[in-house]
Design goal:
This protein has a domain of about 180 residues: NAD(P)-binding Rossmann-like Domain (Rossmann fold, 3-Layer(aba) Sandwich), CATH 3.40.50.720. It contains 13 helices and nine strands. The strands form two sheets. Strands 3-2-1-4-5-6-8 form a seven-stranded parallel β-sheet, sandwiched between helices. The protein has a two-stranded parallel sheet with strand order 7-9. The radius of gyration is 20 Å and the shape is globular. The protein starts with a strand and ends with a helix.
Length: about 290
């Protein structure tokens, strides 16, 4: 029995659909959700819906009963991620779960990482590895979806890309490709305590992003690498709150420092095909 947390989210939903396509019976899949009303489609497929919350250890203990394998989809509350993930890890171990999988983040160097929020992924990995359970850690590179949907801005085709990311390169991959790969791995019996680096087959700078957009829309899109001071000053004039800037600045600093530049064949191998490339991904995500 495989328990998928965050089952009504974008990642968890694709993982479940992939497992079903791979021949995993719906009665072998359980879905952990906080809101049962959002899980009607899962119930209709015959999936066992279990109510639980990362903050509620008792609910997690109940949800883990009879479970052999768990996918822990990283939580969203950055103020207490490690404690939430500890609750899931401890509940899984207490229930005798044989394999704990986790959606981590593919970052190049833990020691030089600036973004403290991203450090929580490594801390969670430490918890899982130290638990003594077999594990599968999926280090997902920055989603191309996030880059296209949030980082570029709605007026990118008119104003270009203006970010404090320097010449930093990232091996962006689609969330759907990464989720499909996770579903493929979970569909097998293998849980050999392995770390996967799910990245694209090459890295891309924002200059590459600008060039791809130019080709797709038939007009010149430019990339202007801003200094952090200028970026922050402009963001303040647009009303971006200080607490948001405190999170955003380290994020772009890490990109500029190459934290997202790992390249691995793990994603391609798990998919059984090449991951969607930058130009094709931007065309899909931005409807170009």
């Amino acid at each position: 029995m495989i328990l998928i947390t965050g089952a009504t989210g974008k990642m968890g939903g694709i993982v479940i659909e992939t497992m079903l396509k791979n021949g995993i019976s719906s009665n072998q899949i359980a879905a952990l959700v906080r809101d049962e009303d959002k899980a009607t489609a899962l119930k209709a497929k015959g999936i066992d819906v279990r109510i639980g919350d990362y903050d509620n250890r008792h609910s997690l203990d109940e949800a883990m009963k009879g479970i052999d394998k768990v996918l822990l989809v990283s939580g969203l509350d950055t103020s207490k991620l490690v404690e939430q993930h500890r609750n899931v890890t401890d509940a899984a171990k207490g229930a005798g779960v044989k394999c704990l999988a986790y959606t981590s983040n593919c970052l190049k160097d833990r020691e030089t990482l600036v973004n403290n929020i991203m450090r929580t992924h490594f801390e969670t990995e430490d918890l899982i590895i130290g638990s003594g359970m077999n594990y599968l850690i999926f280090r997902n590179v920055l989603y191309m979806d996030s880059m296209a949907g949030y980082m570029l801005g709605k007026d990118v085709l008119e104003k270009g890309i203006n970010l404090p990311a320097g010449d930093g390169r990232v091996s962006y991959a689609l969330r759907s490709d990464e989720a499909e790969a996770i579903g493929n791995v979970l569909s097998t019996d293998n849980c050999a305590s392995r770390i996967f680096n799910f990245t694209n087959t090459r890295t891309y700078s924002f200059e590459d992003v600008a060039n791809a957009l130019s080709e797709l829309c038939g007009k010149t899109v430019t990339y202007t690498p801003l200094t952090m001071d200028i970026y922050i000053a402009e963001a303040r004039t647009k009303g971006v709150p200080e607490h948001a800037l405190e999170m955003i600045a380290p994020f772009y600093t890490d990109i500029a420092n190459g934290q997202g530049s790992t390249v691995s064949t793990d994603l391609e191998e798990a998919l059984g095909r090449k991951p969607v490339d930058l130009k094709s991904g931007l065309k899909l995500l931005l409807n170009l």
